[in-house]
Amino acid sequence: MTDESMRSDAHKENKGLPIDRWQVAHIRSPEELIADYSLPRPHLITEILSRRLVMADGGHLSEDDIWQWSVAERLRALASIVSDSGASEFSAIAACLAADCDQLIQLNLDLAAIRQPSDVDGIYCFVSSGERLQLRLPTGTDQRTLLKLRDADDLGLVREMATRLVVSVDGGSLAPDTPCPPEWISTIETALAANDPAYYTEEIVTCPECGHDNPVEIDLEELLIDRLMQQQEQLFQQIDLLATAYRWSESAIVGLPEWRRERYVGLVSRR
Ligand SMILES: [Zn+2]
């Protein structure tokens, strides 16, 4: 199934939700496929997305555009890139936390569910002191800014992020340079999680061995990046094999449709 038809199917199941403004581009050069996986995660994601996506009308997408996307949309785009390579589901492994049990549990995750559009117009919540907050989802730019504050402790970072995501308080604005009260943080986190289920994923997983219920935090970003990194490693091995066997250039090998590349790899391997 092509990416385009998967997208229109997803749209049919969710009447009224917007269709993606972007699509996964066809690969034409190694630069579009090969990313530097040693970059800090927000930078890596921006690099991958800017190389692999184009606007739905075929127009160019800049890194600046992609930094402005919500973290949820960036995740959805990553999932689209992974599913463009033919994957429909992928799995994570968690260890059982019960004492005396070292069972590993496999979790199967559905890529189509992550790829569902979930654009949110406005997120509102009431804090215990009665104020009504309007919130927004975090963006790539927020993540990049937080990277620079790495010296702050975890609570400091969470509070800084929560403050950045408050759009208004009772219709007015937060006082400039004032962090939000610490007691707002859990309310803000809950409201964001309810509007962004793909990103904040915690599941209770029952151990098949001992029956213990394990709360498992699933880092979808990391899992998707791992998958893309494995694909890149596989591509490097194919390039190495085919360049050695046929003296083809890196760009000629990457430019081959995947099924043809795999066919040649099969032929060379059988020599
Ligand atoms: Zn167990």
Task: Explain what you see.
The protein is α+β, with helices and mostly antiparallel strands. It folds into 2 domains: about 160 residues, no CATH class; about 70 residues, no CATH class. The protein is about 45% helix and about 15% strand. It is built from 12 helices and 9 strands. A hairpin with a 5-residue loop joins strand 5 and strand 6. The N terminus is likely disordered. Zinc ion binds next to loops.
Compact overview of the structure:
By secondary structure, this protein is α+β, with helices and mostly antiparallel strands.
Essential attributes:
271 residues, alpha+beta, three-stranded antiparallel beta sheet, two-stranded antiparallel sheet, 46% helix, globular, binds zinc ion
